[in-house]
Amino acid sequence: MEEGNSTTMMKLYSHPMSSCSRRVRLALYLKGLNYECINITSIGDPELLKVNPMGYVPALVDGTTVVSDSYAILLYLEEKYPQHALLPQDIMKKSINYQAASIVSSSIQPLQNTTLVHYIGEIVSPDEKLPWAQYHIRKGFVALEKLLANHAGKYATGDEIYLADLYLAPQLDNAINRFKLDMTEFPLLLKLYKIYCETPSFQQIFAEPPQQIDKSLFNFTKPQEA
Ligand SMILES: N[C@@H](CCC(=O)N[C@@H](CS)C(=O)NCC(=O)O)C(=O)O
Description:
Pfam families: GST_C_3, GST_N_3. By secondary structure, this protein is α/β, with parallel strands linked by helices.
């Protein structure tokens, strides 16, 4: 494993259940980079706020460089540590990767983020949280199923793991295991999810978090509503 910086190890502020953190953990794994994983213990963790004023995970500290937001972190890692390229050379395939990543990061994940789903529960009704999340995930998945139909191989855009897979795998896990989305109309996405579950790089992000991790931070149901 390579170290991010000759003197200090990279630090990733993360949470095992955060899909945005999982994208970055996948990239670090694929690029063979060592890092210290700091799992946040509360939303609004003061340590996290120091590196990301938005209070979201992930945030990366690499020597004197501090980067938050998974997209920025992935671009940074790709440029600084080019091993295991996250993008294919082919411009058309590259554009499909950008598009898949953008659908997940802009049109799905923010609409099913824990804070927003809890807010919907408060201003509309707790019963609306699940349908709300399912509606927005489904809408994005309809687009992704069509987008990838002519490009998928073993993975989303061929037989190599690229950016699209880094975004898809954690989002599929959220949809299937957290939000119980019916996947019948998404055979390709379901097939990809099954492949991810059998692939070691993805298995490490799907692994059950250690016992001391507070899973409720990223549950869409607050403990009092469970
Ligand atoms: N665009 C940001 C989104 C970050 C984000 O929404 N992170 C989620 C976890 S996936 C989070 O910290 N949620 C806590 C909250 O909702 O307060 C990124 O890609 O890093």
